Amino acid sequence: MKKNRIKYFTIILIMMFLTLALRLAFLQLINGDYYSQQAEAVFSRVYSEKPQRGEILTTEGIKLATNIQSFNIIYTDNRKVVPEKDIPKVLLKVIRVLKNETPDYEKLILDTLPIKIDNNKVEFDFDVYVSEEDLNLNDNISQEEKLKKIEEKRQKILKAKEERFKKDYNLPLDLDANQTLYELFVKYKIANKNVDRYIFVENMSLQEAKDVLSLRLLIEKNRFYKYKPVEIAKNVSRKTAFYIAMKSEELPNVSFNEEPLRYYPNGDFASHILGYLSRAGEDTAEQYKSLGYDINNEWIGAIGLEAKFENITKNEYGASLRGEPKEKYITVDKFGNQLKLIGEVEGIPGDTIVTTISYNLQKVAEESLERLFKNLQEGKVDGTRRPNANRGAVVVANVKTGEILALVSKPSFDPNLFAEFGTIKDEETRLRIFTPEKFLTETQKYYNEVLKLDIVPKPLYNYATKSLVPPGSTFKLLTSIAALEEGIITPNTIIVDKGMYRELPGFKGNCWIWNEKHTTHGPVNVAKALQVSCNYFYYAVAQKMGWDKFDKWVKKYNLIRNGNNSATGIEIGENFGQASSVEKRKALFIRKYLKNIMEKLKIKEDDKLLSDIKEMFLNENLDDTRLAGLSENQKKYINSAYNQFIAEAKRLSDLLSASIGQGENQFTPLQLAQFYMTVVNGGNRYKLHLVKEILNPDGSLKYKVEPEVLDKVEIKPETYNAVMQGLQKVNEEGSAASVFRNYPIPTGGKTGTVQIFNDFSSEIAKRASADGVVANGVYVGVAPINDPQIVVVVLVYNAGHGYSCASVVKDIYDEYFGLNKMQPNSETSNSQISTTH
């Protein structure tokens, strides 16, 4: 009996061990991989897919920025399928397929390696573009010093980028470009080092090896996120995408995906309004990562409306062109490989931005400005060729709402160039857009580098919102208003033009008609002075007015910075140009005086005494008690310097120059438009805006932009009537009469000819004229003059005369008032010749 119990117990034990053994075999042999992965699946991750970007439309609903479907070649870094040593072989096959089997080699993303090989010379090749805006330089610094500081900053960034690149890949910092390249070849199994020779795998060429390395570095950037596919070619053809899919066995880990690609249907049309998309810069990468961006594959609005409405953190309307990405919640193993999809949250497309831009007005403005450039360059406007008339701007604004109906800056750029890769892939095109100064002729270099004159056409620069230029005679409208409102003159006051103004000792300004024809305008009142642009008249009223009253009115019209006031309020980037004023002049001259004081007193720039002196000079409050510790001679020197400083800041002869739009006056075309709007609409300074409304993804209204009055500038009715009469006479009898005389709608305007060689010798000015480096032309138009609806500002650099610009305004009026539908638009409308100023 006892033996039977032992026997049964033994059988039970054997069965138990057999069951355990079978279970263990099941776990290890049959489901071993599954449970091994489960043991390693200790991480949860969120993977985002790029959302569909919102559209940008004209006021009529025409698409300016939209999206198209695109195909990308992607690599998923699964080392269990392709071990590290074989990755270069797979990438080489992809490169050869796109080069030999399909026409999409140019779509490969090959700019991740900042090294170039040119004529067997290996060099680092980092893209670094530094502008004045990047340095936030003030207006008081010379052009030569600006260029020096820009180059210093550029070299500093280049050095920092080179060091960071080497540190990212654990390379010695003392390696040159050639050594760096070959160290990376070895590191990523693209080449083997044999004593002092390098042998590429798979018999690849040097160019192929460089291409493979570029793609390999893309994959390396993603090493901690292997669940995310890496885009290695963008926007390939459908044929290429399907060819890659068919070759899946030969190209493991390689496939394709579909995603929306930003597309601008009209090319460079309204490009400075729209902006473009770019990769996140090093200084903003972490910020965008924290907002959920995949900065390796997702581009960000760089300028224009694309930047302003990139996401809700960028604007006050809570609008986002980007939208919300689709999110996948997954688990990954310790190598970053995806194991399981837990769930998904669908993405939300971006908001739609409806602009105030009229498609037809914008089109007419762009085409007319380009036509004017051509006519000026060919000498069809006044018989003289203007070869450098290749930059300019147009602003068209509704005077009763502040809406911008058209905004043009030339030269322009095609934002589609940036859409695929977040940068411009073709090197020459990229350099011409970002560094146009590298392509100047020898003659242009003389003016740009020797005389420090800006004559470089910059495609990315918005001349409508950022170019700061003297307004010329268009500024005489403000001087007229200030003189009338301050009681210096009445609408009937007569001043006799004597040609040469010698009423202020030491001042030798002449009326333009004296310089050109050796005659005068005779007796003129304010309306006549505006009509004929009589410098003599404005010299006389400015001398009587003085700086205090002049400053009062430039502040009223927001033409001088006062605290944190913005320039015009427009949504895209703009500069704040300022009128000449005592405050501006003090800021302009203070540096020179402080430098002299530092040298005389032998004190350092960070000395508190120097800071105190600066404060006292600027506040016009010199206090000897704050100069304690200085000798009597030193105090005497400070007092003398102070008196000279105040005298220079308030020099009356400079006010006379400022009164006719020269001197330190500098405004953007946008500011000029806002100033004229404020005057002609009765005193309402509207906030200028490009956005009409914002729509939700379903098309419902999210936000409607209403007209906003920033300030009210009251002037007497007789002042208003006098200056409006003067503006009307400009178009009927004055410098713009050749274009607007007998125009079916009553209009007004003011021309401005901005001299740029006042500080150079007559020999240089004569040479410049022969080379086509001449005065800038400005024209401001108002229509209808008896009930103003729109203001138009046109600026053309090196146009020679302001009246040249009037033809562009006429073309815009024809479109706005429907007159071009009644008669054919003349191709030669801006080749009419005027002989008045």
Automatic annotation (TrEMBL):
<keyword id="KW-0133">Cell shape</keyword>
<dbReference type="GO" id="GO:0008658">
    <property type="term" value="F:penicillin binding"/>
</dbReference>
<dbReference type="InterPro" id="IPR002137">
    <property type="entry name" value="Beta-lactam_class-D_AS"/>
</dbReference>
<dbReference type="InterPro" id="IPR005311">
    <property type="entry name" value="PBP_dimer"/>
</dbReference>
<keyword id="KW-0472">Membrane</keyword>
<dbReference type="InterPro" id="IPR036138">
    <property type="entry name" value="PBP_dimer_sf"/>
</dbReference>
<dbReference type="InterPro" id="IPR001460">
    <property type="entry name" value="PCN-bd_Tpept"/>
</dbReference>
<dbReference type="InterPro" id="IPR050515">
    <property type="entry name" value="Beta-lactam/transpept"/>
</dbReference>
<feature type="domain" description="Penicillin-binding protein transpeptidase">
    <location>
        <begin position="392"/>
        <end position="813"/>
    </location>
</feature>
<feature type="modified residue" description="N6-carboxylysine">
    <location>
        <position position="476"/>
    </location>
</feature>
<keyword id="KW-0812">Transmembrane</keyword>
<dbReference type="GO" id="GO:0017001">
    <property type="term" value="P:antibiotic catabolic process"/>
</dbReference>
<dbReference type="GO" id="GO:0071972">
    <property type="term" value="F:peptidoglycan L,D-transpeptidase activity"/>
</dbReference>
<comment type="similarity">
    <text>Belongs to the class-D beta-lactamase family.</text>
</comment>
<dbReference type="GO" id="GO:0008360">
    <property type="term" value="P:regulation of cell shape"/>
</dbReference>
<keyword id="KW-0573">Peptidoglycan synthesis</keyword>
<keyword id="KW-0961">Cell wall biogenesis/degradation</keyword>
<dbReference type="Pfam" id="PF03717">
    <property type="entry name" value="PBP_dimer"/>
</dbReference>
<dbReference type="InterPro" id="IPR012338">
    <property type="entry name" value="Beta-lactam/transpept-like"/>
</dbReference>
<feature type="active site" description="Acyl-ester intermediate">
    <location>
        <position position="473"/>
    </location>
</feature>
<keyword id="KW-0732">Signal</keyword>
<dbReference type="GO" id="GO:0046677">
    <property type="term" value="P:response to antibiotic"/>
</dbReference>
<comment type="similarity">
    <text>Belongs to the transpeptidase family.</text>
</comment>
<keyword id="KW-0046">Antibiotic resistance</keyword>
<dbReference type="GO" id="GO:0009252">
    <property type="term" value="P:peptidoglycan biosynthetic process"/>
</dbReference>
<dbReference type="GO" id="GO:0071555">
    <property type="term" value="P:cell wall organization"/>
</dbReference>
<protein>
    <recommendedName>
        <fullName>Beta-lactamase</fullName>
        <ecNumber>3.5.2.6</ecNumber>
    </recommendedName>
</protein>
<keyword id="KW-1133">Transmembrane helix</keyword>
<dbReference type="GO" id="GO:0008800">
    <property type="term" value="F:beta-lactamase activity"/>
</dbReference>
<keyword id="KW-0378">Hydrolase</keyword>
<dbReference type="Pfam" id="PF00905">
    <property type="entry name" value="Transpeptidase"/>
</dbReference>
<feature type="domain" description="Penicillin-binding protein dimerisation">
    <location>
        <begin position="49"/>
        <end position="340"/>
    </location>
</feature>
<keyword id="KW-1003">Cell membrane</keyword>
<dbReference type="GO" id="GO:0005886">
    <property type="term" value="C:plasma membrane"/>
</dbReference>
